[in-house]
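subagent[fold] <- orchestrator: predict structure for attached chain, return tokens only, no commentary.
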Amino acid sequence: MKLYIKQKVFSWRDKFVIKDENDHDKYSAEGEIITWGRKLHIYNARGNEVAYIRQKLFTFMPRYDIEVNGQTYTLVREFSFLHPKLRLEGLPWTMEGNFMAHDYQLKDNNDIVMIISKHWFTWGDSYELDIINPRNELLCLCIALAIDCMNAGSSSTTSTN
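subagent[fold] -> orchestrator:
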């Protein structure tokens, strides 16, 4: 299954619209206006909050807590000289790919869980998520949004987007 993330450009806070393969609104994500660290609330099509992403502050490398279905996972950028690496605490998933081109594969051992591709030359950030198992849809969406926050310079301690 595929999801498409589109960032709303002219907004006081981080805002994203997430559509399915049939171009129907599936989720939305909104950041808080003035906070210490980035925070995103994810809502389903009915407007109910279904997940929450929060930047952990005062850490050496960027870390984001992802709360989905009563579980908390932490996405961590690991220190590396050659290639950036991401790790998800709470599951044995690993992230591989070309981080400079924003093309990633999320894997569980050798099995692909999700493929993330950034669409270039668009107004605002746009991503295509190819999620293999629909049961992982919401967690995979949150991982992609947390990666976008990391790439947007989340090392600052305040966000007014």
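orchestrator: received. Logging for downstream: Confidence is low (pLDDT under 50) at residues 154-161. Helices lie at 137-151.
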